[in-house]
Design brief:
The protein is of the alpha+beta class. The chain has 9 helices and 8 strands. Helix 1 packs parallel to helix 2.
C-alpha cells in the first residue's frame, strides 16, 4: 500500500474481505486497544484473524493488547487473556478511558472501531502516517501508565466471601429477591441486607452498578 488510503467498512465480514490481508502483513508489531473482547469482531472473525496473523511469540514480533477493566468482567475472558499472554502477547489493563479502540499494524496501518449499527460495527482503515503516528502516541502514553494483567489481578481488591460471591451471581442471574433468598436459604430481609452490604463494599449506588464495579475490579461473578 504505497499511497495513503482511508476507507470505511461495515461489519466483521466486510472488514475481513477488505482488510483481512493487512493482518497477514503484520511483520514487527501488532497493537490492539479495546474496551472489551467484543470490540474486535465475533468469535468466528477473531479466529479468522488469528489464523492469518503471525504467532505472538514469533522472533522479532511484538503483540500488545491494551484493555479496560470491563474486559475482566467474566472468568472466561480472564482465562482467554491469560492464554493469549502465555502464547507471547503482552497484556495490560488501563485505569484510564481509552480514547480510541484501535488496531495498529507495524506503525503503518491503523483500524479504528466506530459505532455499532444494526448492520454491524463500522471500522475505518487508514495508512495515513500522520493519523497512525498520532494515535500510536496516545496508545503509548496510556500503555506506559497501565498495569500488566497479572499485576492488575493481584491488586488490592475488595474481599468477597463465598456468600458475597453467591449474592453477586444472583444479582447477575436476573432472579427475583424472593427466589435468590430461597436459593441462599435466608430470609428475604437478610438477603436484602446482604445485598446492601455488598453494594457498599463495591461502592455501588445500584445493583446494576455493583455488577459493573465487580467487572471493573476483575472480580469473578461465580464462586
Amino acid at each position: 500500500m504505497r499511497n495513503e488510503q482511508v476507507f470505511s467498512v461495515q461489519g466483521d465480514a466486510e472488514l475481513l474481505a477488505r482488510a483481512g490481508h493487512l493482518f497477514e502483513s503484520a511483520y514487527t508489531e501488532f497493537l490492539c486497544a479495546a474496551r472489551d473482547l467484543r470490540t474486535w469482531s465475533q468469535p468466528e472473525a477473531r479466529a479468522a484473524i488469528r489464523h492469518r496473523m503471525r504467532a505472538p511469540d514469533s522472533p522479532g514480533f511484538t503483540s500488545r493488547k491494551l484493555l479496560s477493566p470491563v474486559a475482566l468482567a467474566e472468568e472466561e475472558a480472564r482465562a482467554h487473556l491469560r492464554q493469549v499472554q502465555s502464547q507471547g502477547a503482552v497484556v495490560r489493563i488501563s485505569g484510564s478511558p481509552l480514547p480510541h479502540e484501535t488496531i495498529i499494524i507495524d506503525r503503518r496501518v491503523m483500524i479504528l472501531a466506530g459505532k455499532d449499527t444494526p448492520a454491524g460495527r463500522e471500522y475505518t482503515v487508514t495508512t495515513s502516517q500522520i493519523l497512525v503516528d498520532g494515535v500510536y502516541s496516545l496508545f503509548s502514553a496510556i500503555w506506559d501508565n497501565s498495569l500488566d494483567l497479572d499485576t492488575y489481578l493481584r491488586g488490592d481488591l475488595p474481599h468477597l466471601d463465598a456468600d458475597g460471591r453467591t449474592i453477586l451471581e444472583a444479582l447477575g442471574s436476573g432472579l427475583t429477591d424472593e427466589a435468590a433468598a430461597r436459593r441462599l436459604g435466608v430470609s428475604l430481609r437478610t438477603y436484602r441486607r446482604r445485598v446492601a452490604e455488598l453494594m457498599a463494599k463495591l461502592e455501588a449506588d445500584s445493583r446494576f452498578q455493583a455488577g459493573l464495579r465487580a467487572g471493573e475490579l476483575g472480580l469473578p461473578r461465580r464462586a
